[in-house]
Amino acid sequence: MAEPLNCIYERVSVSGSGLILGIESSCDETAAAVVERGSRTLSSVIASQIATHARYGGVVPEIASREHLRAIVPVVRAALAQANVTLADLDAIAVTAGPGLAGALLVGITFAKALAFAQGLPLIAVNHIEGHIHAVLLHEREASSLDGAPVQDVTADDPALALVVSGGHTHLFLAESRQSGWRYKLVGRTLDDAAGEAFDKVAKLLGFGYPGGPWIDALARFGDPTAVHFAFAQMKTKLHLVGKTPRTKGARTSPIADLDPHFLFSFSGIKTAVLRYVELNDLRPDALARAASIPAGSRPPKTKEDALALCSQQVLDLIASFQHAVVGDLMKKAFAAAESLGAQRILVTGGVAANSELRSRFAAEAAKRRVHVAFPTLALSTDNAAMIAAAAWPRFLSEAFADTSLSADPTLALGH
Ligand code: KG4
Ligand code: ZN
């Protein structure tokens, strides 16, 4: 039986200043942050590998691990320096334990373990998906402390519906805070691609760089969202889901047949539909480039202006219609789940929560239905370590510390 790390530590104090160093390395961002009591960010440093992976059109796991190794020490140093604290001021170290890329996760975990051991600090393992949910809560606490409003946290009496929508995940959870810590119940998920993956794949087939979401977001506003009709299949019966194991990356979840089919997503079909539309209408990237008299070899475009110059109105309409359809599907199922489960608050988080159409349509729908919707700041929407340190705070209070056997769990599940 592995020994809990905190047994061998001298300084486990809840009465301290509550400073937690968070470390995140689950995918292509090496991040470290110092957060006080889960509610005040003293620093948040992110070393992005996007430029390194962009030339391959997606994240290459081996390169990600190598880049994390290079970045981890300077990133942690910078986070401490920006927070104006030293290792001796910390109360705990939190690290992402999964889900994510095994080699990438291991870099953060090994570093966090070594640091915790050397400093005599407790180590807290955090689920990356839970981190995304706490990004919203951290932002809400910070915003309310600025405008003096009381912090209204999510409680068991007032559960929230959390939509975690990123490049690796599209999950719906019912989230509630109990005396003993946070509880999550999975209520929906994608059966195949994550929504962010669909954004990335559609952008790639149109000739734009990685990650695709920001390109689609920037170009969609120039197109007609009603020009191309995309329909999503609605899973109607539980029967055909029995025994199905979705072929998705990311977290393990409960059997699909246990979930309400109305809250299941599927984004691989729309990617194929976009591809078919592109082929039928001869909108391949070289055709785009020819139309704009730009040599095909000069792609992908580097700026939004270059991208706009490359796109015919038909391509812009296609992009706008794709985004409109994906956002509409996320919205329909998230609001239906909230209503069916009696949640008056919806927390939308993960990289795709940075999408401008998603934010404005969710906000408008929430106002119409008189429910509360919250997002993280744009910086907290994509991967960062402040959300990891914030999610660790309730665990610190309940002394739910990791032991020396902590290792990477690429398919770590959240909730039940
Ligand atoms: O949360 P995140 O940084 O990493 C994962 O945990 O996956 O999310 C990255 C994903 C990518 O698929 C990216 O294309 C998408 O978030 N994304 C966006 C936007 N910004 C990032 N998708 C749509 N609109 C955006 N503005
Ligand atoms: Zn993420």
Question: What are the main properties of this structure?
Answer:
binds 5'-O-[(R)-(carboxyoxy)(hydroxy)phosphoryl]adenosine, alpha/beta, 2 domains, 416 residues, 5-stranded mixed beta sheet, 6-stranded mixed beta sheet, Nucleotidyltransferase, domain 5, disordered N terminus, 13 helices, binds zinc ion, 41% helix
Describe this structure in words.
- With 416 residues, the protein is of the alpha/beta class.
- Helix content is 41%, strand content 17%.
- The chain is built from 13 helices and eleven strands.
- The strands form two sheets. Strands 9-8-7-6-10-11 form a six-stranded mixed β-sheet, sandwiched between helices. A five-stranded mixed β-sheet has the order 3-2-1-4-5, with helices on both faces.
- It is globular, with a radius of gyration of 22 Å.
- Zinc ion (ZN) binds next to helix 4.
Model regions low in confidence, pLDDT < 50 over at least 5 residues: 3-11
Following the backbone from N to C, one meets helices and strands in this order, namely EEEHHEHEHEEEHHEHHHHEHEHH
The chain-level mean pLDDT equals 88
Task: Please give the share of residues in helix.
Answer: 40-55%
CATH class of the largest domain: Alpha Beta
- What's the end-to-end separation, in Å? 25 Å
For the largest beta sheet, what order do the strands appear in spatially? 9-8-7-6-10-11
Number of domain modules: 2
Secondary structure category: alpha/beta
Q: Could you state the CATH homologous superfamily of the largest domain?
A: ATPase, nucleotide binding domain
Rg, Å, rounded: 22 Å
Strand tally? 11
Instruction: Count up the helices.
Output: 13
Outline the biggest β-sheet: 6 strands, mixed
